[in-house]
Design goal:
7-stranded mixed sheet; alpha/beta
């Protein structure tokens, strides 16, 4: 697909540049460069070009697949990135471990385009709204193929139905996988109760023989290609898949799910902090936020950007912009290093079952 080819080209170019990121980042703050670390396929590449053309600041861009891959790199400081885009619970962990620095919002005047409700949501992981600027948000749900699944899909329980053996895709993410089991069992997705964690692990082990694959980005491509009947997916990915395959439908299960938000943060020691703030400010401009939404299809918290959306079905989409009061939603929070290690151990037990 064009989207993937563009990102492959971008990744190859920026990876070559970022090979010297550790050395380059040691230069002073006047350098016209900003080192960005972001999820894969999580920004319109044209925006990076436009930013450089307008500001003269070169973007050196690296990608990661999960928060758990990103975190140790930032903690180790092996590469001094200027701006990073973690998820809610990981931002709290980074704040607690003194890995972030406060943003100077005088350099980010476009922050006012972010809706108040999203700043309020961000308080769950950034209590004083000092460290993070909301970028995109969404839910986690079930994507299913209407030609393969004829029954009503409204519960996580369908992911344990034996008739869909080898037709189920699960997220290869500890917190998201455990969230599915925890919600199905009626627990909080932020539980640290040992009995509840063990019950969730055992439920995931029961499911494992039915699972075709544990995947991340591949769930999108497999569902588009009719390679599976059901998949756990992020809402933004669901919008993209429906554009490519009209037989796909997305639902938020009745037991509830995660309400997540990814935000831009600036690590401590970032050598080009002002450039990072200029980059964040640029992404908060309504026209830029709209271009980005149109490309990545993840929900934007930028209120005036929505006025640029000409397609009424998208502007009023219950997937992109759901009525949050209708669902049992929770924001993931950091559970602490000890629980994180324990969850990692439990996940290994699931994967090796």
């Amino acid at each position: 697909m064009k989207k993937q080819l563009l990102f492959l080209s971008l990744f190859l170019i920026t990876s070559a540049l970022s090979g010297c990121a550790g050395n380059e980042a040691s230069k002073n703050n006047d350098d016209n460069v900003v080192y960005v670390y972001n999820w894969g396929e999580y920004i319109d590449p044209e925006i990076l070009t436009m930013f450089t053309e307008e500001t003269g600041i070169e973007v050196v861009y690296d990608e990661y697949e999960t928060n758990e891959i990103m975190y140790p790199k930032i903690k180790a400081g092996a590469v001094n990135y200027d701006v990073v885009c973690p998820s809610d619970y990981m931002i709290k962990k980074m704040i607690d471990n003194d890995l972030l620095q406060e943003i100077n919002f005088d350099n980010v005047p476009n922050y006012g385009n972010i809706g108040d409700e999203y700043w309020e949501m961000a308080r769950d992981y950034d209590p004083e709204n000092q460290y993070a600027v909301p970028y995109v948000w969404g839910t986690v749900g079930i994507l299913y193929n209407k030609t393969m699944v004829k029954e009503k899909v409204d519960s996580w329980s369908i992911l344990w139905d034996p008739k869909y053996k080898d037709e189920i895709l699960m997220q290869d993410s500890i917190r998201d996988a455990f969230m599915v089991a925890e919600k199905y069992l009626g627990y909080s997705m932020n539980t640290i109760d040992e009995d509840e964690l063990q019950a969730s692990k055992e439920l995931l082990q029961q499911q494992k023989p039915l699972v075709q694959a544990y995947v991340i980005d591949q769930v999108r491509d497999k569902m588009i290609g009719n390679e599976a009947a059901l998949g756990v997916i992020y809402s933004g990915e669901a919008i993209f898949t429906q554009r490519e395959n009209p037989d796909l439908e997305y639902v938020i299960p009745k037991e509830g799910t995660a309400l997540w938000m990814d935000s831009w943060v600036i690590p401590k020691g970032a050598p080009h902090k002002e450039n990072a703030e200029k980059f964040i400010n640029y992404l908060c401009r309504p026209d830029i936020a709209y271009l980005n939404f149109d490309y990545i299809t993840y929900s934007t918290p930028n209120i005036p950007a929505r006025d640029y959306i000409e397609d009424e079905d998208i502007r009023n989409s219950p997937i992109a912009f759901p009525d949050l009061s209708k669902y049992n939603l929770e924001v993931q929070v950091s559970l602490g290093e000890k629980v994180d290690r324990h969850l990692s151990d439990l996940w290994r037990e699931v994967k090796s079952y």
